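PROTEIN DESIGN WORKSHEET
SECTION A - STRUCTURE
LENGTH: 763
TOKENS:
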């Protein structure tokens, strides 16, 4: 039944669902319920607005000023939903009878005439990561007589199960009867059959539309289709339903980018300013995170299993804010019914009173030429973002120490990532966070890691449980002061010193080696020196020093509580290097080597250079696919190595396609790359790679401009160079990636080179 409310006197009480069923400990350890793990909740405090700009001369006020806007509700991975305020009060609230999505309704034709009509909504919720651990041999049979099974296996306008869909579904699953394994095969099939391209504006949506426009791969002759996230999801859902697996869409927003101000929001896609061939409009989305839709399928005995079809992950997702579920969502009783009367979403009209997806708002896209959607979110006080970030790094438990070390390296890279060669002598964290809001959560997560080390496992997780219990039961932010009180109660000692230097301080420590010497004394080597704190604030720090010798690494410990501490270390073997904090245990200012993912920070200031010496067509195709499928920029940024100017080589990021044997510019810089390619082979860390299916991606600082980078993407054959397009290794969170055929082999970072923290023996 529809739930209708003609007026809402106190919207703050709508949807106040407090989630207290899972403790934080359950969400940071592998405690499962029916094989699905919900963990690491992240708080979203959201302010969004929807504004219509009608032309009074072109509308009928009695018909054309209706607006439906979704509001979030609780789902399995989305809890503690609280609608804080809605202005102006809606004329009605509805819940669609099939999927249970909630929406608010306004008819601005009943209001005083204005140049524009704006709705402002504030809400708060907690979003959990989902990880499904499924035993395919332990799946119960479906109840095919249930209404829910019928709902999520039916053919609809958007998810149309055509004979072609049934044929492809059977091709994908073959003789497999297990629904989990079938879904895996269908997922792989969709990933192979669709290439990303946005066609909604000119083509519309749905599986029938998708299959109407097949393309042929010029090289392989294979048929494929083009679409964006909605088409990926619809295709996967239709294939699942065709073999009897219940499946549905999930619509919302992905990402995490607090700290962006409304005046700094940018238009999500330039095409949102355009009209469709039928003269229908799209909402102009100005947001800090991305609108998206994905999918999930149902397994009896387990529940709904997440599938990120577009991004390529099966069985897990994170950082999702859900606005609705299901395609073809029925709009409330005041909908136009079978005739759309011009209403719809993003250039697509309603069909029999349903919108293909319920994301930001449904309005008259035929009569009104402009609608604007603003979406901002902000954080709770420390430690909210830090805990979500840090505890997310505790999984998977395999190789956890290695993975945590790599993560700490990444956090310490933030200043180098944005300041590049010129990290200032005094880095003001408050200003740095204002300039680069994403760095704040990462560095707060590092502080949580250090607090974990200070308290130990038992006390740390007891503290986190106490904090999470209060936050979720009160359904509001917990202050940093209150969190510190909890920490001191659990620890049994004052922690004022810890919070002062790591939470409230505005400058991280700077460490510097000085006057280091090494001298052999009888049978031992003596390493003398001094470790300085060069910042304005003196920290209390336990510091590890690593001495690298021919016989391995020795770890020495030092306690630093003043501006300078002298050390005198002994070692039996000749020292080669001395490294401060070799495992990155301290949040400090440290110059770090670049990582491949850094290229996004200078978007779109790129040049893509393909080699023409040999394998020219493969190198060019790899560059074109990288741009088309990943960057989405004009092809003018792609140049042959024969057409490159000196100015091109000082672009913020220079991408080279093809090894030095095939690319003149790769040849020019080949001696600067740590992994050196010798014609059709390379050796790294004692292993030789010489198979034509192998390749490497690596990044270095540009010697022509220390503020920019050079990235080399190359295989040991033309076909291997194009493999980057299929493996999506372009933006790995590492300095290099080595691959073999369809799998990643080795990834890592270059050696530390910060002269303040690394000393080498001069001979």
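SECTION B - SEQUENCE
RESIDUE ASSIGNMENT:
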């Amino acid at each position: 039944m529809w739930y209708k409310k003609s007026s809402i006197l106190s919207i703050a009480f709508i949807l106040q669902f407090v989630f207290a069923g899972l403790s934080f400990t359950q969400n940071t350890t592998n405690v499962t319920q029916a094989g699905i793990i919900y963990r690491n909740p992240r708080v979203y405090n959201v302010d969004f607005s929807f504004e219509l700009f009608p032309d009074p001369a072109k509308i009928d006020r009695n018909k054309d000023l209706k607006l439906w806007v979704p509001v979030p509700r609780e789902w399995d991975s989305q809890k503690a939903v609280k609608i804080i305020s809605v202005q102006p009060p809606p004329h009605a609230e509805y819940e669609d009878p099939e999927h249970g999505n909630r929406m608010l309704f306004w008819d601005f034709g009943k209001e005083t005439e204005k140049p524009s009509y704006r709705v402002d909504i504030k809400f708060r919720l907690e979003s959990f990561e989902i990880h499904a651990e499924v035993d395919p041999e332990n799946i119960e049979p479906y109840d095919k007589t249930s209404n829910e099974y019928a709902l999520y296996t039916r053919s609809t306008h958007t998810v149309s199960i055509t004979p072609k869909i049934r044929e492809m579904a059977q091709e994908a699953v073959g003789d497999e009867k297990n629904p989990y394994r079938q879904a895996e095969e269908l997922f792989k099939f969709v990933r192979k059959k669709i290439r990303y391209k946005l066609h909604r504006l000119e083509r519309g949506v749905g599986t029938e539309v998708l299959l109407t426009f097949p393309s042929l791969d010029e090289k392989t002759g294979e048929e494929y289709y083009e679409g964006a996230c909605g088409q990926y999801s619809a295709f996967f859902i239709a294939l699942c339903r065709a073999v009897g697996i219940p499946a549905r869409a999930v619509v919302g927003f992905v990402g995490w980018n607090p700290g962006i101000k409304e005046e700094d929001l940018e238009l999500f896609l330039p095409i949102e300013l355009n009209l469709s061939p039928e003269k229908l409009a799209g909402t102009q989305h100005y947001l800090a995170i991305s609108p998206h839709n994905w999918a999930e399928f149902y397994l009896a005995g387990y529940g709904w299993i997440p599938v990120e079809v577009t991004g390529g992950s099966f069985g897990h997702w994170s950082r999702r804010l859900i606005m609705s579920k299901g395609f073809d969502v029925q709009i409330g009783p005041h909908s136009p019914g079978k005739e759309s009367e011009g209403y719809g979403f993003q250039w697509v009209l309603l069909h029999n009173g349903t919108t293909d997806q319920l994301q930001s708002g449904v309005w008259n896209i035929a009569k009104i030429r402009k609608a604007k959607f603003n979406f901002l979110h902000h954080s709770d006080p420390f430690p909210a973002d830090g805990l979500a970030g840090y505890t997310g790094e505790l999984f998977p438990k395999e190789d956890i120490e290695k993975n945590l070390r790599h993560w700490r390296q990444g956090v310490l890279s933030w200043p180098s990532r944005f300041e590049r060669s010129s990290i200032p002598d005094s880095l003001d964290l408050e200003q740095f966070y204002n300039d680069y809001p994403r760095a704040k959560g990462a560095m707060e997560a590092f502080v949580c890691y250090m607090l974990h080390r200070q308290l130990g496992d038992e006390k740390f997780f007891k503290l986190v449980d106490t904090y999470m219990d209060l936050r979720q039961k009160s359904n509001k932010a917990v202050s940093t002061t209150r969190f510190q009180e909890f920490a001191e109660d659990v620890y049994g000692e004052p922690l004022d010193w810890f919070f002062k230097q790591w939470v409230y301080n505005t400058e991280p420590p700077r460490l510097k080696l000085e006057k280091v010497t090494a001298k052999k004394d009888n049978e031992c080597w003596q390493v003398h020196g001094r470790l300085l704190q060069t910042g304005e604030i003196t920290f209390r720090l336990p510091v590890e020093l690593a001495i690298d010798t021919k016989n391995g690494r020795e770890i020495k410990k030092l306690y630093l509580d003043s501006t300078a501490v002298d050390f005198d270390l002994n070692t039996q073997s000749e020292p080669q290097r001395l490294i401060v904090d070799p495992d990155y245990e301290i949040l400090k200012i440290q110059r770090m080597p670049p990582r491949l993912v850094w290229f996004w920070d200078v978007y779109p200031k790129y040049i893509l250079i393909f080699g023409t010496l040999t394998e020219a067509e493969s190198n060019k195709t790899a560059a074109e696919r990288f741009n088309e499928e990943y960057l989405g920029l004009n092809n003018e940024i792609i140049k042959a190595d024969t057409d490159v100017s000196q100015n091109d080589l000082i672009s913020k990021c220079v991408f080279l396609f093809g090894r030095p044997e095939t690319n003149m510019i790769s040849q020019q810089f080949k001696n600067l790359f740590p992994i050196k390619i010798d014609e059709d082979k390379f050796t790294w860390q004692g292993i030789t790679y010489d198979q034509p299916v192998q390749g490497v991606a690596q990044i270095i600082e540009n010697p022509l401009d220390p503020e920019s980078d050079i990235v080399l993407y190359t295989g040991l054959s033309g076909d291997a160079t194009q493999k980057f397009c299929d493996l999506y290794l372009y933006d790995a969170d590492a300095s290099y990636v080595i691959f073999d055929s369809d799998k990643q082999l080795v990834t890592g970072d270059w050696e530390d080179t910060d002269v303040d923290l690394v000393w080498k023996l001069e001979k």
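SECTION C - NOTES
Confidence is low (pLDDT under 50) at residues 1-32.
Residues 326 and 744 are 35 Å apart (CA to CA).
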